[in-house]
Design a protein that fits this description.
- By secondary structure, the chain is mainly alpha-helical.
- The chain is 73% helix and 0% strand.
- It has 6 helices and no strands.
- The radius of gyration is 29 Å and the shape is flat.
- The termini are far apart.
C-alpha cells in the first residue's frame, strides 16, 4: 500500500512522491505501447450539439406544450378543433425551428399533414409529408420515415392514384 504523505510534511516530499508515481505510470505506458498490445488509431471527435441555454429550454418547453394542445384539439375530432390544431402546430413548428430540433420539426410537419388530410386537403397534406421526409432522414429516424410513407400512401389511395410511386 502506498505511503500517504501527511499535510504537515514538506512540499518536497509531496513532489517526490508524485513524481515517482508519475514516472512509474509513464514507464508502464511506454512498455505497454512497445509490447504491441497497444496500436495507434485515429479517432474523430464530433460535437453533436452544445448544451441548451435557458432560453432554448424555455422555447422547447413552450413548443412541447403547444404541440400537446394541438394534439388534444385533433382528438376532439371536429373540423373546427382540427383547424385550431393546425394553427397551434404552425406555432410549435416555428419554435422547433428556433431551437433547431429537426426531429420535432418533422414530427410536427407530419402531424399537420395528417390533420390537413383528415380535413380533405390532400394536396397540402402531401406538401407537408414531403417536407418532413428529408428531416426524418437527416436525423435517422426510420420510424418517422415509415409513418410518413404510410401517410403519403394513404393520401394517394384516397385520391385514387394507387400507381403513384413514392
Amino acid at each position: 500500500m502506498p505511503k500517504r504523505i501527511a499535510p504537515h510534511q514538506k512540499p518536497r516530499q509531496l513532489l517526490a512522491a508524485f513524481t515517482s508515481r508519475s514516472f512509474i505510470l509513464l514507464v508502464s505506458i511506454m512498455v505497454f505501447a512497445e509490447s504491441g498490445m497497444a496500436t495507434a488509431r485515429h479517432y474523430a471527435v464530433k460535437i453533436a450539439q452544445q448544451p441548451p441555454t435557458e432560453a432554448q429550454d424555455a422555447t422547447r418547453t413552450a413548443a412541447e406544450r403547444i404541440f400537446q394542445e394541438a394534439d388534444k384539439l385533433v382528438r376532439q375530432g371536429t373540423a373546427e378543433s382540427r383547424k385550431q390544431a393546425i394553427e397551434k402546430f404552425k406555432t410549435a413548428l416555428q419554435l422547433w425551428q428556433k431551437v433547431g430540433d429537426f426531429k420535432q420539426q418533422a414530427i410536427t410537419l407530419n402531424a399537420m399533414g395528417f390533420v390537413y388530410s383528415t380535413l380533405g386537403n390532400k394536396q397540402q397534406a402531401l406538401v407537408l409529408y414531403n417536407q418532413s421526409l428529408p428531416l426524418f432522414r437527416q436525423v435517422g429516424y426510420k420510424e418517422g420515415e415509415a409513418t410518413t410513407f404510410n401517410n403519403i400512401g394513404g393520401v394517394y389511395d384516397a385520391l385514387g392514384d394507387q400507381g403513384e410511386r413514392i
